[in-house]
Give the backbone structure.
Amino acid sequence: MPNSRKPFRTNVGFIVHQEVGYSHEIPFEFESAKFEDLEVSHLAGSIHIGRTPQGLIAQGKFSADVALECARCLRSFPQRLNWKFTELFAINKDSTDENGLLLPEDMQIDFAPILREYALLEAPINPLHDPACKGLCIECGQDLNEKDCGHSQHPDDSPFSILQKLL
């Protein structure tokens, strides 16, 4: 059962002592959550933990809203992220996979770092609030989505403008 100070820390000791093939589902639902530098809202999902000969396999499926900044106009906007993960928590070092995750001695797994990592992998590299975003004026900084400032954008300033003559 998650505690209020570390809501993604879960006691898995009872699963370790079960037979191979036993599984348990842990649901999570939070209006808001913070993973170090990442704040999300409307977080929902679950982690399915199964007992294997090597240890515990955790399979999670989550979705949440995150506030991103448009790469063109710097406008903040909400983005829905959906992510899944599968991680093996080995009983001993000989059973570890490429991630090298071991079951802690106290049998308390904190899933927060894993959730953060996979959520960040789902976030777009260059987020856009709208694919047709016009961005900011390079001279005065006016948001061109709101109004045209009258400055002409000089395409001739580009080092690739010479290629335009080839068309």
Remarks:
- The mean pLDDT is 88.
- The chain has one domain: 9-133.
- The first helix runs from residue 13 to 16.
- The chain has three helices and six strands.
